[in-house]
Amino acid sequence: MKHRVAKRKFGFGYDANKMLLRQLCRNFFLEQTLTTTKQKAKAAQIAVEKLVSKSKVKTEANKNFILKFFGEPALVDRLFDTVGPALAKIEGGYTRLTLSAQRQSDGAMMARLSWAHPVVAEKKKVEKKTEKEVEKTEEPKLVEEKK
How far apart are CA 11 and CA 17, in angstroms? Predict the structure, then answer.
């Protein structure tokens, strides 16, 4: 009997299923939306909800949990800096799952995972300096004397 077992299998093997879930969550946090099959979206929604709950409080244990899941320190910092504070006062239901049409090629039900509440993701702007500004900011180079 499989009582109280809420595990979804995708038929790729244990390691491949973990990697699939990791990549779905990573893409969701980077792109703010995710369009995939219904079953994969449901599994990703559960994982995203857990990660957001962890990112609301910045403790060493939560940081290590998220770092172990993703393995990317930059993504961990982004979660604690943008996602956690934006959803700090919300107790649950961070994401919304919207069903869409079936996929034409194989007839799989498609779903879109998105934020239920606004989360502002700051994108870093790269400013280009002109040649004159670069010349002004350069420090004079020290020339070492040969002995």
Answer: 8
